[in-house]
Amino acid sequence: MSSEADSRFMRLAIALGQRGLGRVWPNPAVGCVIVRDGVIVGRGWTQPGGRPHAEVVALAQAGPAARGATAYVSLEPCAHTGKTPPCAGALAASGVARVVTALTDPDPRVTGKGHMMLRAAGIDVVEGVERAAAAQANAGFLMRVRHGRPFVTLKLAQTLDGRIATASGASRWITGPQARRRVHLMRAAHDAVMVGAGTARADDPDLRVRELGVAHQPLRLVADSRLGVSATSRLARSAHESPVWMLHGPQAPASARGDWHCAGAELVPCALDGMGRLDMADALRQLGARGLTRLFCEGGGGLAASLMGAGLIDDLVVFSAGHVFGADGTAALGALGITGIGPHPFELVGMQRCGADLMHHWRRSDMLMDLLTKR
Fold first, then answer.
1. Average pLDDT along the chain, 375 residues, taken 10 residues at a time
2. Cα(279)–Cα(235) distance, rounded to whole angstroms?
3. What is the CA radius of gyration of the chain?
4. Closest C-alpha among 64, 62, 52 to residue 27
5. Which end of the chain is more exposed for a tag (fewer CB within 10 A), N or C?
6. How far apart, in whole angstroms, are the C-alpha atoms of residue 219 and residue 292?
7. What's residue 1's pLDDT?
């Protein structure tokens, strides 16, 4: 098989794996394609809840045709027995002649062992095909395993002059229906959606995915150090239907904790920073320890500034609308105290029109290095 064909089939495996984003945490979203004599005989991706794995799904589809075939897997097949037997063993038992992978799994239970198991079974193993693309597709899993926190996407919907509300506080709707629909698509591809206490109080959001016919909902999180958001809010009233986690500090009153617990929310205690606000680095570590891999932050300005100031934004998605609110409007980001201009911290990934609005997507410049190395 040529290197060009290997890359083509691996890109397909990566794309298949992305179908699981937002639904497989704490597992990686893996794709697998099985090819025999240039024809795809099986394909699969990690199923909701993380089981079965992509390789098992693809092998079941391929059946006897897997013997002598090549399996393309976007992450090293697992080599340990957990809730299911190891996928490296399943591939070996199927009789595949060759396995091509994109990434070595950084999970210490697996790292290199899956490849070793395959080679010990006499299978030709090729590693590192489309490595960068696979790392970006599974950025959440890699970030959690390597750095103990989820991958964070910050979404801003703002005017041309960077405002998210008028001087009177009006904020609905800055962007149009096409942009809002795109935001719902993004929510569906993340494990959790988070807002700050100010946004939760001002907008009383629901934060669920609507009008897309999806069969799952992301977790809904509020960063609220004092648990000042009302336990009669829309989030609280629907917590028994769709999970809500409240990130709070040690000063949150016992009465508020009890109210949110009774509403059905999970309470996540977090440390405070030097200014008495939630320490967002610690908050993300708490979420990573609970298995979250991909977090979609929808503001507001204070929370966004805390994450940005701590260097915790990995992807930045900005929707710019044709409004101008002026300096007396509310800024999209709170104060950051920046006094000098250095190298660009973000690089442009792409931009496109969404109805009457413009969406531009930026990525932290050193993000790929962070995904592929442990600092």
1. 88 97 96 97 95 95 97 94 82 96 92 94 96 96 96 96 90 91 96 96 93 89 96 96 97 97 97 92 98 94 93 96 94 89 93 96 91 72
2. 23
3. 22
4. 52
5. C
6. 10
7. 58
Kindly state the DSSP code that residue 66 receives in the 8-state scheme: G
Block residue for tokens 């977790």 = 219
Q: Determine the distance from the C-alpha atom of residue 31 to the mean position of all C-alpha atoms in its chain, rounded to a whole number.
A: 16
Reported residue count of the chain is: 375
pLDDT for res 82: 67
Query: In the chain, what are the helix, strand and coil shares in percent, each to the nearest 5?
Result: 35, 25, 45
Q: What is the DSSP string of 256-305?
A: HHHHHHHHTPEEEE--B-TTSSB-HHHHHHHHHHTT--EEEE---HHHHH
Partnered with residue 156 across adjacent β-strands are 318
Burial 337-355 (b: 16+ CB within 10 A, else e): eeeeeeeeeeeeeeeeebb
Of 55, 76, 130, 298, which one is the catalytic site residue?
55
pLDDT of residue 15: 98
C-alpha closest to that of 50 among 97, 83, 7? 83
What pLDDT is attached to residue 8?
A: 97
Rounded to whole angstroms, the Cα distance separating 157 from 316 reads 11
Instruction: Look at the pTM and tell me if it is higher than 0.70.
Output: yes
Name residue 157's beta-bridge partners.
Answer: 319
Closest CA to 72 of 36, 100, 41, 38: 100
Residue 180 has what pLDDT?
Answer: 94
Both tokens assigned to 336: 């950051």
Rounding to the nearest 10 degrees, give the CA dihedral for residues 202, 208, 213, 214: 150
What are the φ/ψ torsions at residue 351 (nearest 5 degrees)? Answer: -150, 150
User: Which DSSP string do the residues of 81-121 spell out, in sequence order?
Assistant: -SSS--HHHHHHHHT-SEEEES----STTTTTHHHHHHHHT
Using the structure block, give the residue that is written with the tokens 């959440």: 140
The two three-digit tokens of residue 340, written as one number: 């000098």
Tell me the C-alpha distance between 218 and 189, whole Å.
8
Does the active-site annotation cover 211?
no
